[in-house]
Design a protein that fits this description.
This protein is an alpha/beta fold. It is 34% helix and 25% strand. It folds into two domains: 243 residues, Ribonuclease Z/Hydroxyacylglutathione hydrolase-like (Metallo-beta-lactamase, Chain A), CATH 3.60.15; 142 residues, 3-Layer(aba) Sandwich (Rossmann fold). The strands form six sheets. It has a seven-stranded mixed β-sheet. The chain has a five-stranded mixed β-sheet with strand order 12-13-14-15-16, with helices on one face. Helix 5 crosses helix 9, helix 6 packs across helix 7 and helix 8 crosses helix 12. 48% of the residues are buried.
């Protein structure tokens, strides 16, 4: 894509990444891709906000060079030091040798740690402002969204929030960079939720804290470092992030996420009965086969649904490993306020249920029921599984 003027003298100069398979080396983006959004303000002084990943430096420099002589660049503003934002920094500085790098105090230290940079660096204070001429930038410290040095940059006159990882999402920008460019935003909203649950959810408290700092600030455009620029309806992405972040301290939506795994289909037969019980109560359910589905795609449902059913067998006296792997990531991502249940087969001695209950207790989940059975479920076992599904669904509906 070519640079896009988002307001007079203000340009999107980002790049799309369709070559990386795993974002942060963990999260699959081989299908959705991701954008690295960067912004240039041309005024009496010129300022570059955010950069790109190192492997896309050539594309990024080509974008930037279309709208500015790099040798004349006055400021490089570092909202966040993670290398998907700063990987192109040293290449930029080869051409912009007189540019001042601006960032919060912890950014200054990280510039040395990551890139050995110690010169032409200006340390910012929270709410400090910088005049570029007609435009004024305000730097707001938003720690742990999602690194400790992170800030957001607010363009006062245009009321644009350059929000870095806050309010971002996966997905390349295919021909349009604004929310108004797409008739259907379902893909981008879904990928924003996946991005949130993968990257940001563990820092929900910090997200809410950051949002309070802008509660009385007029925002006409939200310009994150990944995903759509929200210009037509900036309140939409703010509302979504507010809702998702609230789930760290209160129950989420009425729904049940099933973490399913089986070796010889015994657990699967019991799960089918449990799903009939859930359906009888009219509660939405999302079934994820933990053997096949990457946890990246499971976390959005775990985060936004208040019920969890783990349907997985015992393996060597412990919970089926793929199911435990998902639960361990849920614990790491601070997935809390869940009503949960367990069912699963075992051969001679249990252990899967106890393993599940131990990690559920660690996460503060309320475990309503557990049903472990030897071998395959008999008729009475299927009846019990059905009733367990109904009871879990009822419990999920009554959580407030």
């Amino acid at each position: 894509m070519r640079p896009v003027e988002i307001r007079p003298g203000i340009y999107w100069v980002g790049v799309n990444d369709r070559v990386t398979d795993l974002f942060e080396g963990l999260w699959p983006i081989d299908q959705a891709g991701v954008s690295y959004n960067a912004y240039l303000i041309k005024d009496e002084k010129s300022a570059l906000i955010d950069l790109s990943k190192e492997i896309l430096s050539d594309d990024y420099l080509a974008q930037l060079s279309e709208v500015v002589d790099l040798a004349s660049l006055d400021y490089v503003i570092i909202n966040h030091m993670e290398p998907d934002h700063t990987g192109a920094l040293q290449r930029i500085l080869e051409f912009a040798q007189n540019a001042q790098i601006l960032g919060m105090p912890k950014t200054v230290r990280m510039l040395d740690d990551f890139y050995g940079l110690t010169e032409n660096i200006t340390q910012l204070a929270n709410n400090e402002e910088l005049s570029l001429g007609k435009n004024t930038l305000r730097f707001v410290y938003t720690p742990l969204v999602h690194w400790p040095e992170t800030m957001m940059t607010y363009l006062v006159e245009e009321q644009i929030l350059f929000s870095c990882d806050g309010f971002g999402g996966y997905g390349t920008l295919d021909g349009g960079i604004f929310d108004g460019d797409y008739a259907d935003l379902a893909f981008f909203e879904s990928e924003a939720l996946r991005y949130f649950s993968n990257i940001v959810a563990a820092f929900s408290k910090s997200v809410l804290s950051a949002m309070k700092k802008f509660a009385d600030v007029p925002i006409k455009m939200v310009a994150p470092s990944h995903g759509l620029i929200w210009r037509k309806d900036p309140g939409r992405i703010l509302e979504l992030y507010q809702t998702w972040s609230e789930y760290h301290r209160q129950p989420a939506e009425a729904g049940i996420t099933v973490l399913f795994g089986t070796m010889y289909r015994n657990t699967e037969h019991a799960l089918n009965a449990a799903l009939e019980g859930i359906a009888a109560e009219g509660v939405p359910v999302s079934v994820h086969d933990v053997r096949k589905t990457h946890v990246s795609h499971i976390l959005p449902d775990l985060w936004t649904q208040r019920g969890v059913l783990v349907a997985a067998p015992t393996y060597e006296g412990k919970l089926f490993p793929p199911a435990m792997d998902v639960l361990m990531m849920a614990n790491r991502k601070r997935v809390t306020h869940k009503t949960a249940a367990y069912l699963g087969s075992y051969a001679w001695s249990g252990g899967g249920q106890a393993d599940f209950e131990a990690i559920a207790e660690k996460m503060g989940w309320q475990v309503s029921q557990g049903f472990g059975f030897i071998g395959g479920p008999k008729t009475d076992g299927l009846t019990r599984a059905y009733e367990m599904g109904r009871q879990l669904a009822k419990a999920v509906k009554t959580v407030s």
